[in-house]
Specification:
By secondary structure, the protein is an alpha+beta fold. It has a single domain, classed as tt1808, chain A (Alpha-Beta Complex), CATH 3.90.1570.10. The protein is built from five helices and 14 strands. Strands 4-7-9-10-11-12 form a six-stranded mixed sheet. Strands 1-3-2 form a three-stranded antiparallel sheet, covered by helices on one side. The protein has a three-stranded mixed sheet with strand order 6-5-8. Strand 5 and strand 6 form a beta hairpin.
Length: 190
């Protein structure tokens, strides 16, 4: 997450954000500019989105990619991928509130926030059943699943053949998640 670019209340942020060409997240009254992504990040995001979209086709759920907002209390985030099965969410144009699955593809500049404060915020979403973190550089695949006790438990799929998203009955092959990346996960910086 970058440095904050402004301070607004929630309604001011939404009005301002809707007029911007770039995306911004809103966390605790501060606005953070979303930086561009690397090819590896975009590839993994696309792979996951495509797999989830294909899997839930014909169900009452829908997958969305990184250009749509998720509201958590008075915060706004742009998850890399999310799935919602909520009827109200499926009728909204811009701000979603009830995702079932959220996926964040990690980058060096955002992974501490994605693992920490953002995950703490996401845990306040009553409908959220699973939070998937994928690191394209290290090939780490970690899933946090909400249990009957409402607590999230870590399931590490890093060295597994597949990753199971039980809330939407989906099994993602790890090779599909990282398809089209170099074997070591590294991309050449230009």
């Amino acid at each position: 997450m970058g440095l904050p670019v402004a301070r607004f209340n929630f309604d001011q942020f939404i009005d301002w954000e809707n007029e911007q060409a770039e995306r911004h997240e809103f966390y605790r009254g501060e606005v953070f500019s979303m930086v561009g992504v690397r090819r590896t990040h975009g590839t993994v995001t696309g792979n996951i989105f495509s797999a989830l979209r294909q899997h839930i086709k014909g169900t009452p759920c829908q997958a969305f990619s990184e250009s749509l907002k998720v509201k958590v209390n008075e915060n706004i985030f742009y998850p890399d991928v999310f799935v919602t099965c909520d009827k109200t969410d499926l009728q909204t144009d811009m701000i979603f509130t009830a995702p079932t699955v959220i996926v964040e593809v990690l980058s060096p500049s955002t992974q501490a926030f994605d693992r920490g404060l953002k995950f703490a915020a996401y845990r306040n979403i009553a409908s959220l059943k699973e939070y998937l973190l994928v690191d394209p550089d290290t090939r780490v695949v970690e899933l946090y699943r909400r249990g009957a006790d409402e607590l999230f438990t870590l399931h590490d799929y890093t060295d597994q053949a597949s990753c199971e998203l039980k809330s939407i009955a989906c099994v993602l092959a790890i090779t599909d998640i990282f398809e089209d990346l170099k074997p070591d996960g590294a991309a050449k910086e230009i």
